[in-house]
Amino acid sequence: MLTGDRDLRTPADTVMDWKRHGTQDVRFRAYEGGHFYLTEHIRQVAELITADPADPAGPLGRVSIVDSGR
């Protein structure tokens, strides 16, 4: 799950609530910025979503894993 760390429309705790809709652990990443953080971080987000999830040195290895609670 991705969000902006200063997003007033969708604060991090609201984004984190989405984890209850799945059965797997989820990865959470907050980028610097507000609701439109994506426009300022498009390269980093593209690298994140195309990264090899098994590579611990890649961008997914630096993302917080949140237990789904199930």
What does this structure look like?
The protein is α+β, with helices and mostly antiparallel strands and 70 residues long. The protein has one domain. Helix content is 26%, strand content 17%. It contains 3 helices and 3 strands, in the order E-H-E-H-H-E. The chain has a 3-stranded mixed sheet. Helix 1 (12-16) links the parallel strand 1 (2-4) and strand 2. The longest helix is centred in the middle third of the chain and has 9 residues, at 42-50. The radius of gyration is 12 Å and the shape is flat. The relative contact order is 0.27. The mean pLDDT is 80.
Task: Produce the secondary structure layout.
Elements: E1 2-4, H1 12-16, E2 26-31, H2 37-40, H3 42-50, E3 64-66
Through-space gap between termini: 17 Å
Mean pLDDT: 80
Sequence of secondary-structure elements: EHEHHE
Unreliable segments of 5+ consecutive residues: none
Largest sheet: 3 strands, mixed
Tally the beta strands: 3
Overall outline: flat
The helix tally amounts to 3
Strand order of the largest sheet: 1-2-3
Overall SS class: alpha+beta
Residue share in β-strands: 15-25%
Radius of gyration: 12 Å
Q: How many domains in all?
A: 1
Helical content stands at 25-40%
Key terms:
70 residues, alpha+beta, three-stranded mixed beta sheet, 3 helices, 3 strands
In short, what is this structure?
The protein is of the alpha+beta class and 70 residues long. It is 26% helix and 17% strand. The longest helix is centred in the middle third of the chain and has 9 residues, at 42-50.
